[in-house]
Amino acid sequence: MFEKKYVMSQEENIFWAKRNLVDYIWKSANLEGIGVTFPETQTIVEGISIQGKSIDDINSIVQLKHGWQMVFESINEELDLAYIKKLHLIIGKMTVINSGTLRMDEVRIAGSSYIPPIPTEALAEKKIREILSSGREWTEIALNLMLYLTKSQLFYDGNKRIAMLAANKLLIQHGCGVLSVSQDQLEKFFTLLISYYEDEAQADALKKFLYENCLDGFRGKVSD
Asked: Where is the Fido domain (predicted)?
């Protein structure tokens, strides 16, 4: 069901991601409710200041750019909890309480009655290892990792951004395309995401939506 959708080399996939980087950063910002336009995102990514945007919003865009740079520079490094914590150091809100450490308190998810358990390093490491060693095709492994990181809420902030970047590291490493959610798909994405929070059995519906609507690349897989 979730076979490799695109056939690219790692180098081709990196080129594709870099070519469309501003678009991916813009979509990730929208995913987190950061109200920026594509031209504003491009301006910020290019290091030019703009008027009318909060420092937090501008910093979030810059941090996403740095997060993508980390992914490109470490594309073949092992993806484990330590790596994900490094991503959080780059793209999370840099405060003493949450800089690169797992959350230690209960959090609520807007729109959902689901309350994610307080994470532990041992359980998070175990779950990530299980996902990565499942033997499934890398596209599905990346989707499974994204779903786990989003639902587990390992950090106080930035969980969707981190989940998306971690999934994209796997996808790009194995030439499987790039995952992003466009503005016109946000409502459907959040509807399915809330359903998945409430009921683990809805995972396949969310994965199917992401696979069919949110993966891009070139040279689609030719059926035998």
From this structure: 79-212
What's 16's domain CATH number? 1.10.3290.10
pLDDT at 98: 52
Is residue 158 situated within a structural domain? yes
64 pLDDT band (50/70/90 cuts)?
A: very high
Work out how many domains the chain is built from and give that number.
1
Residue 158 predicted with pLDDT over 70: yes
Domain that residue 72 falls in: 10-214
The model carries a pTM of 0.93
In 3D space, the residue among 211, 200, 161 whose CA is nearest the CA of residue 26 turns out to be: 161
The H-assigned helical ranges of the chain are 10-19, 21-31, 38-45, 55-73, 81-91, 121-132, 138-152, 159-173, 186-198, 203-213
Instruction: Report in angstroms the alpha-carbon separations of 61 from 48, 58, 160, 199.
Output: 12, 5, 14, 32
- 49 part of a folded domain: yes
Is residue 135 within 8 A of residue 65, CB to CB? The reply is no
Which SS3 state, helix, strand or coil, does residue 165 take? helix
CB atoms within 10 A of CB 205: 14
Angstrom distance (rounded) from CA 49 to CA 62: 11
Domain assignment present for 221 = no
Share of the chain above pLDDT 90, in %: 81
